[in-house]
Amino acid sequence: MIANEAELRALMTAGLNGDAAAHRALLDRLSRHLRAYYKNKLARIGRSADEAEDLVQDALMAIHTRRHTYNPGELFTPWVHAITRYKLIDHLRHTKAAMTNVPIEDAADFEAQDDHAGAESALDINRLLARLPEKMRRAIRHVKIDGLSVAETAARCGMSESAVKVSVHRGLKAMAAAIAQGRTT
User: Fold this and answer.
1) Do 31 and 84 contact (CB within 8 A), yes or no?
2) Quick one: 98 and 141 in the same domain?
3) Residues 107 and 128 in one domain
4) Residues 154 and 106 occupy one common structural domain
5) Are 99 and 150 contained in the same domain?
6) Membrane-crossing residues (predicted)?
7) Confidence band (pLDDT; 50, 70, 90) for 130?
């Protein structure tokens, strides 16, 4: 999706360190990439370019407001891709009724975008999740993978919302530590 990891990562790091011009430049560069990404994805399923513009704005807002969650020691583009992908999934979930008009062959193309690397990533995530206690594993799976709200997860798991938030936070921290130590298997 995004071509120059080093440049974007440098802009993000500078922005995190208070360089407003670098942050604006980052969002400008990302907006061009995101616009092309969303237009491509939506066109494949017969959706409007206007929806792409809304998604670009949503993604840029999420990147801006969640920038404190980015770890400068990690790659930047996977972090951005996760946000953009979840924004697209969330948008499609909320506009599901319009999906009934998508020709089946186009819908299959859109749904089948997971490639070999995506399958390997899913295996790695499952391995990492398997290391966690059941409570953390369920909270992360529901909130971060299935896209449920904290309230919905709390109701499903019989936990308080605070307990869900803590479980997700601690579980993700444990997973990040395992990745940093190279223990994904």
Assistant:
1) no
2) no
3) no
4) no
5) no
6) none
7) confident
Burial letters for 47-83: b for 16+ Cβ neighbours within 10 Å, e otherwise?
A: beeebbeebbebbbebbeeeeeebeeeeebeebbeeb
47 phi-psi bin (left φ>0, alpha ψ -120 to 50, beta other): beta
Structural tokens at position 142? 């529901």
Confirm if 62 and 30 have CB atoms less than 8 A apart: no
Let me know whether 102 and 144 are in one domain: no
Total domains present in the chain: 2
pTM listed for this prediction = 0.51
Domain boundary among 88, 111, 134: 111
Question: Is 44 part of any domain?
Answer: yes
**77-107: pLDDT as tens digits:** 899 999 998 888 888 888 764 545 555 444 4
* Identity of residue 22: A
Residues spanned by the domain of 175: 116-180
The span from the CA of 134 to the CA of 94, in Å, is 30
Across 35-41, average pLDDT: 90
In angstroms, what CA-CA distances link 66 with 3, 71, 154, 158, 165? 22, 11, 23, 28, 16
List the structure tokens of 7.
């440049």
* Shared-domain flag, residues 96 and 37: yes
Residue 58 domain flag? yes
